[in-house]
Amino acid sequence: MNRLTLAIGLALSAGLLHAEERSAAASPSSAVAADASSAASAPAPSIYTYDPLKVIGQRLFPYQEGMTMDRRYIEEQIRGNGDIGTLLRINPSVQFDETAATSRNMGEIRPADISINGGLYYQNAFVLDGAGFNNDTAPGGSTLAASIIDVPSHTQGIALDASQIGTLTVYDSNVPASYGGFNGGVVEAESRRARDAFSGSVVMRMQRSVWNEMHIAAPALQNFEESSTESLQPRYDKYQLRATLEGRTRNGLGLSGTVSRLRSVIPLRGYTSGRNSVSDENEKEQVRENTSASLRADWSDGEGLEVSASVNYAPTDERYFIANAKNGYYDLEQGGPVASLRVNYQRGDWTWRNTLSYSDLDSSRRSQTDYWKSWARSSEMDWGVTTLSAEGSWGNIDQRNRNLGYKLVLEREPMRLGIGEHRLQFGLEYRDRSADYHRLNDHSSYLNPAATRTCTASDGTIDRDGCSLSPVETTASGVIKGRGQYFTRRNVYREGAFNVDNREWALFAQDDIRLGRWSLRPGVRVDGDSLMGRTTVAPRLATSWDVFGDRDTLLTAGVNRYYGRNLFAYKLREGRERLQLEQRRGADLIWRDVRTSPADYRFDRLRVPYSDELALGWNQRWAGLDLSLKYVRRENRDEVLRETILNLDDSGFYDTRVNRYSNRGRSRSQTYTASVSPSRPLRWGNVVTSAEAAFDYTDVRRNYSDYETAYSEALEDWVRYQGKLMRANELPATSFNRPWSARLASQTRFESIGLLWSNFLRYRSGYRGRQSLGREVFEGKSISVIDEVAYPDTWTWDSSVEWTLRLPHEQQAYARVEAQNLTNRSNLISSATATTTVYEPGRSYWLELGYRF
What we know:
- This protein is mostly beta strands.
- It has one domain (66-442, 498-706, 733-762, 794-852): Maltoporin, Chain A, CATH 2.40.170.20.
- 4% of the residues lie in helices and 53% in strands.
- The two termini are 36 Å apart.
- 44% of the residues are buried.
- It comes from Lysobacter enzymogenes.
- InterPro entries: Beta-barrel_TonB_sf, TonB-dep_rcpt-like.
């Protein structure tokens, strides 16, 4: 038996035996849906005290707007790579990208893409201390690292370390008017607020492939073990180091700082199919590294003035290489600073909340060389393992997304008007945003070698870059064995830059009204921007009925409109191809310009995508439990996808057929969710358990995958799906669309022995794939017949055990073991062919050692 499996099993057994000795049955549970006024669980008997536990509940949100996780829940939850997505697994309104984590790519550390109530992953709003950190440069573009034009990006502009978060709130329905720029939901993180006492911690975490189980189909095993590509990662080592200091001065100034680095090293073969190069590295390393440094300060004068400032600098560096190529290393760089200054001032019945925010997010590439050459193999160019010896990379590109914003919110204390009580809120926002794409220097791609006996051009110059007299080893297309070679074609990607500016503004107002047992919150939000020149009006209305007047039975409803964001990617895509100059030459070795590539993307102004929402909910307190049911229906219109049209412009700038983004996308989603948790933590002697169970049914219909999906008139055609006639654009979505799921999370603390046991169990029904069964005739036309491919159900059990040793002088040392997919189930993701079968990660371990004072 794996030693770590044995260790965690013994630790769990010891904890349960101790609980039995105290006659305390500890049932699995999780984050608590607590009333804002409910008593907090007693903290562990140690100097490392926690904030009161008030996770997760619907009662913190009178209109069932979402879910909040506090600092204690975040610290006790199973962490994995420590990203936001891991924390959001308990939220039944959230679904995840199926391919974010598989048994093939367990060395990756990027945060997973998430969908909230059927919205697209790049149409969520991510906020840290009032500052947005979305990457709108190219969040849904190419995910291929090796692309000569595109630099892959992630929708979360920074990989925020969950250890830096004090509270995490998700607004998934009935979202207040003060939030805009989303079609999915709002994920709002508040950084750690300093405790009163000077304290800190040092933490080391590690995960290794030799500890873990990988599920790989037998026909693909050899290819996996000999992998030279980042899509297959047979080996990896992850290490994280983190240090935190916090405290408060006598005059009330609180300071909290954290420095963290998570690094993953992924050794791969340098050349494909297990072949060895005679003169180049045969094993090369890819690296992923998230570095994060944060500092937060807060102060209050105790008379209504509160000031807080925070800065989070979180760059991500990823090193790749091009397989079968020499000097093919390149680095992808993302992230940057996110900062905010907040000043809240209460005067009389009014509170003024001011937020000044700034972010400068990078998404760039640095290459080892400024060329790409595809030589025929020769005695000088001998590193290739086929008839070719390639060298070089894809060039240097910068992409930046800068935001400077200000937000003002005015809130009034409740006031009586007639028979009702009113809580007024008004606000405005302004953001100056810009983005740019910049190829930093000329990059040459040399192609099509041909035979030669000289490298001296007709003008007398000697070509030392694109010509070699080293004898070629094999006669092939254009080259002759025993002769030299020269390149006949060169694509020059010239230095150049594109930029786009956008000035955005918003006004919003809402009134939270209490009329006896009824609560009503009408609101409106008006947004405008300079990029598209559009002004949008988004009405918001939510209501709640306290059925018996005792707050035990609440019925909620809402009708809302949310407008998303138009991305910088739509504009920055235009004209990049015109940086490409094609050159050719013959035996005289003189390069001649052939053509400058025309632009094949054209920017047209777009309407802003929007979502109309209907939300119904029921929240019930009964027998010590908090029960919540919710239904959310969304109709999404004017969503963006790509289409190809005939170009009627005769300027020569554009190609004869061009791509453009249009508002032809549409989708519909229905989400049914249920959650249940104890109203307050359960206590048996010195054993305290917090718990939450959540369930959902989700149905998403969408006529595209993301904004790079190509529109076709065929999307309007009839199809027969599972025996039913429907339009092709009404087919169920094949991503972020698990119909059923159930989630159970728990944290159990055995206080007398310093043991914490956390669990997360998740069941997910098989998601929907498609297969073609042929065609049939309907109304005189041939239509497709499609059936559903139901992938099998999956379930996983993640568990962690943390044991704390008290030391003198109010210090602690602790050890923590996390096991994900503890039972090592083989959960299938896809199986198009035997060699491309993909499974979820098998059993994997994290070991964490820490010191706290």
